[in-house]
Design a protein that fits this description.
four-stranded antiparallel beta sheet, 27 helices, alpha/beta, three-stranded parallel beta sheet, D-Maltodextrin-Binding Protein, domain 2, about 700 residues, 3 domains, MetI-like fold, about 55% helix
């Protein structure tokens, strides 16, 4: 008697599938959008699949990801097979239990703990060996093998238990040595599980971010790290196209894996009687066929992955634009003494002209001019960059931190002084952005970009143009207000309303600012960072504070958006090029800084990033599309009271972090969410109890 699937069970199954696959369906859908919006679909287009092959950084990250996944999966599969075989034939129970316990630890251990501990281990070993910058491909490979191996063992080991011991003994009776019996009998029998283990390890490697993030170095960046680093701005739609291709690839791998396992099970079921009656034929035919089937599938998959790697290797364009469009002093760079060396650059994600949408690929052109290989990797926050530099696990030659972080790194002796004789283009930097508070003698930094925080609003939802930050507390827009999801920027807005110094160290000032933010919380729809793009572009919110340069990007997809400069002032920030003390190629880094200050290169970056440039030559160019733009370059009277963030003392930073944590969990705005989750959990528990009791009731009839 077959159990009939109930309607609640069917609905539950459908709900689970919707939760699992609806995000993927949306991603695939928007990968064919003609615009760069990820909230409004304009028309069908293959634009982002074309752009994908022009994005050298993303293609390189994908190639690195596939290379790492293939190598680590092969090694972990081989090691897992050897370990599973040893465990199966081991006769010592305590030994088996000890190994299995050790095997399970990496699976139950939080990824962040594993990542940090492995990073510290690699750095410790590097210190003992007197080697700096130990993090790189080798450390990532070891880390990936470590977390893949337990899954491989658990995939293969259960198959041993279902294996007829007489098969191996029969093979030995027919003249096979133990090694020959393993390759002719055991290995074919396990081939489907071995392949499934390989696929599992491969997908785990491709998917991993947390562990990879901690053990990666400057010369090797994987795709998950690349995508995460884009959170300073937005994840570009070409990533949707790439994700679609990866999903299809993994889906094909899983289908082939399941097909291999099911085919082997059907063959074993059909040949069950012949196994008993004719052991010799089974060994020679059935096992051989299983091995051939799986070798054939392995071969196809290997060929497929090899072709993918080759395509992505060949698809990296040499340059996105003609050199003639960007004339600079070519001979100066071609005669560089650093030709043939490597330069490790560490920058914010989506913070350089990279060849997308017809722009100049700045790094590729630099490589052409100088013969210097650029390893370009990204970070998503000043704090993440600082931690990487401070640990000494990776050697970077050039970084682009923000003002307050530069002050901190100078105080901690983490930066090298620049030789401005090697940076003649420093003359193009506006005096307004020289001798700033964090580098008063212009010894350590050269300004890269300038930005402001402003108030973005939707003209269709807001009754009148706001003039004050207090608009973010206006109850008329309750549920339509967004707020910064980082403490420094959020507290700054409250401090401006209260007339405080943004760099106050007075605990009472921070407490008052906290109270102000707590007062605002009931009207806040969400605390956001890069999520603001989708929400504001779709017209789903009325007000939000964010960076002026990013407003211009949003406005391209929603003309109803406008920006206001509140009367209380705002935060002004600069990101500057610096050389960390651990740099191995200081001369090439100074050459790169000079190159980035070239008017044509600065123009390319300014057009692509949409942030204000400090380069006076660019500001005078008629072809600069933002020349004289009142939003990107507001009048001095607007910005005269704007304040820079300074590096806060450790005690003040701790206080800010604690207050921010209290704010996110305090208040009443999350009660409905908690109630909904509680109700859902109760319903699921009641359904599970009902299903269990119903099953027990049916079992009585069978007894």
């Amino acid at each position: 008697m077959k159990n009939k699937i109930t309607i609640p069970a069917k609905l539950y199954t459908v709900l689970i599938f919707i939760i699992l696959y609806a995000p993927i369906a949306v991603l695939i859908f928007f990968s064919f959008n003609s615009s760069n919006s990820t909230s409004v679909f304009n028309e069908f287009s293959l634009r982002w699949y074309t752009e994908l092959f022009n994005d050298t950084a993303t293609i390189k990250a994908l190639k690195n990801t596939l290379l790492l996944a293939v190598i680590s999966s092969i090694i972990s599969t081989v090691l897992g097979l050897i370990t599973a075989t040893g465990l199966h034939y081991s006769k010592t129970k305590w030994y088996k239990k000890s190994i299995m316990t050790a095997n399970n630890i990496p699976m139950v251990n939080p990824d962040i703990v594993t990542g940090i501990s492995m990073m510290l281990l690699f750095i410790f070993v590097g210190t003992i060996l007197r080697q700096s910058g130990v993090l790189g491909f080798g450390t990532m490979l070891i880390a990936h093998i470590t977390f893949e191996l337990p899954y491989v063992i658990l995939n293969i080991l259960p198959r041993f238990k279902s294996m007829d011991k007489n098969l191996v003994e029969a093979a030995k009776d027919l003249g096979c040595t133990p090694v020959q019996a393993f390759f002719k009998v055991t290995l074919p029998y396990l081939s489907a599980e071995i392949f499934a283990a390989f696929v599992m390890a491969f997908t785990l490697s491709i998917d991993d971010f947390v562990i990879s993030y901690f053990v990666s170095g400057p010369e090797f960046q994987t795709l998950p790290i690349r995508i995460y680093s884009m959170t300073k701005k937005r994840v570009t739609p070409d990533i949707y196209a790439l994700s679609t291709l990866i999903f299809v690839t993994v889906f094909v791998l899983l289908v082939l894996s399941n097909y291999s396992q099911n085919k082997q099970k059907r063959r074993e079921s059909m040949n069950e009687n012949s196994i008993k009656n004719n052991m010799k034929n089974n060994i020679k035919n059935n096992m051989k066929n299983n091995m051939k089937d799986n070798i054939r599938i392995f071969t196809k998959i290997s060929a497929f992955l090899s072709i993918v790697l080759l395509i992505f290797s060949l698809s990296i364009p040499v340059s996105a634009s003609s050199v003639d469009d960007y004339p600079i002093n070519i001979e100066y760079y071609k005669n560089s003494p650093y030709r043939g060396s490597t330069l490790n650059v560490y920058n914010w994600g989506e913070y350089i002209s990279d060849g997308a949408e017809g722009s100049l690929n700045v790094n590729v052109y630099f490589e052409e001019l100088t013969g210097i290989k650029v390893n370009y990797t990204n970070y998503d926050s000043n704090e993440d960059m600082y931690a990487k530099i401070k640990s000494g696990g990776a050697n970077y030659d050039l970084i682009i931190p923000s003002d307050y972080m530069i002050a901190r790194m100078i105080d901690e002796n983490l930066l090298l002084k620049l030789d401005y004789a090697n940076i003649p283009n420093f003359k193009y930097i506006s005096n307004e952005y020289k001798s700033l508070y964090f580098d008063p003698k212009d010894e350590y930094s050269v300004t890269y970009t300038v930005g402001y925080v402003a108030l973005i609003y939707n003209t269709k939802l807001v009754h009148e143009a706001p003039t004050s930050w207090t608009a973010l507390w206006d109850k008329r827009y309750a549920g339509n207000i967004l707020m910064f999801n980082n403490p420094r920027d959020a507290f700054a807005i409250a401090q401006l309303i209260l007339g405080q110094d943004l760099n106050s160290t007075n605990p009472d000032d921070w407490q008052r600012a906290y109270d102000k933010l707590l007062e605002q919380k009931p009207v806040v729809r969400a605390y956001v960072m890069d999520e603001i793009y989708n929400i504001m572009e779709s017209g789903a919110a009325a007000l939000a504070p964010y960076y002026v340069g990013d407003f211009l990007t949003m406005q391209e997809n929603n003309e109803d958006l406008a920006v206001a400069f509140p009367k209380e002032g705002a935060n002004i920030f600069v990101d500057s090029m610096c050389i960390p003390k651990t740099a191995k190629n200081k001369g090439a880094a100074e050459l790169y800084i000079n190159y980035m200050c070239e008017p044509e290169i600065s123009l390319a970056n300014a057009e692509y990033i949409c942030y204000a440039t400090p380069n006076t030559a660019v500001l005078e160019m008629d072809k600069y599309s933002f020349k004289g733009d009142e939003i990107l370059y507001p009048d001095a009277s607007v910005t005269e009271d704007y304040q820079y963030f300074h590096n806060l003392p450790a005690e003040t930073q701790a206080l800010m972090s604690n207050l921010w944590g209290d704010l996110k969990v305090d208040g009443q705005s999350n009660i409905s969410t908690y109630i909904g989750l509680a109700v859902f959990a109760i319903v699921m528990i009641m359904y599970a109890i009902y299903a269990f009791l119903k099953k027990k009731h049916r079992e009585k009839f069978y007894d």
